[in-house]
Design goal:
This protein has strands spanning 15-22, 27-34, 39-43, 50-55, 64-69, 77-82, 87-92, 99-104, 110-115, 121-125, 130-134, 141-146, 157-160, 165-168, 173-177. The chain is mostly beta strands.
Length: 178
């Protein structure tokens, strides 16, 4: 809650571009991008150690995984992927690691996704520097509005599930309560 008092618990030689916390269980889930293979797993919040689960398969073309979102870990896991030309929304089977294409968002660089408790999905696209809602049945994105700042990689968004506030971590500010 207070970035000014954060504490480094470890350094990692691995990359995680998709992370989601389950408030109900306290588990921090992540998809490891590097080293390969892509893997879904859990990060120990005390030590920072990653415990790999299944290998993630089914990513389309040259896309990279850019986001992971769920309401809680017993609900549908969603993954976003992008290659700079096309962004795609997937569902993820957390037992097998298999991705299933839901559909293209209609944007080029959807860098992260987030869900509120009602299952409304939001996305941050750095190709347009804008925030969108995303239809979880089709993958289609609908523009909410621009962020007002030229973003680059490593942005993140998330919904505080206790307050409903959507945070855009491009410059750590909240958008609004939805």
């Amino acid at each position: 809650p207070n970035a000014a008092t954060s504490t480094v618990i470890c350094t990692q030689a691995e990359d995680y571009f998709a992370v989601e916390h389950d408030n109900a269980t306290g588990v921090l889930w992540a998809i490891r991008n590097a080293p390969l293979p892509l893997a879904l797993g859990q990060i120990n919040k005390t030590t920072g150690a990653f415990t790999a689960g299944p290998t993630v398969t089914g990513l389309q073309g040259t896309q990279n995984i850019t986001g992971l979102a769920f309401v809680n870990s017993s609900s549908t896991f969603y993954v976003s992927g992008a290659d700079g030309t096309v962004s795609t929304l997937y569902s993820l089977n957390p037992t097998t690691g298999a991705l299933t294409v839901i559909g293209q968002t209609g944007t080029t660089l959807m860098i992260d996704i987030a869900l509120n408790n009602a299952g409304v999905m939001y996305g941050h696209d750095i190709g347009t520097d804008s925030i969108y809602t995303i239809n979880t049945a089709t993958g289609a994105a609908t523009l909410i509005g621009p962020t007002g700042i030229p973003a680059n990689f490593a942005q993140s968004i998330d919904v505080d599930k206790s307050t409903g506030v959507l945070y855009d971590r491009v410059f750590v500010r909240h958008w609004d309560t939805w």
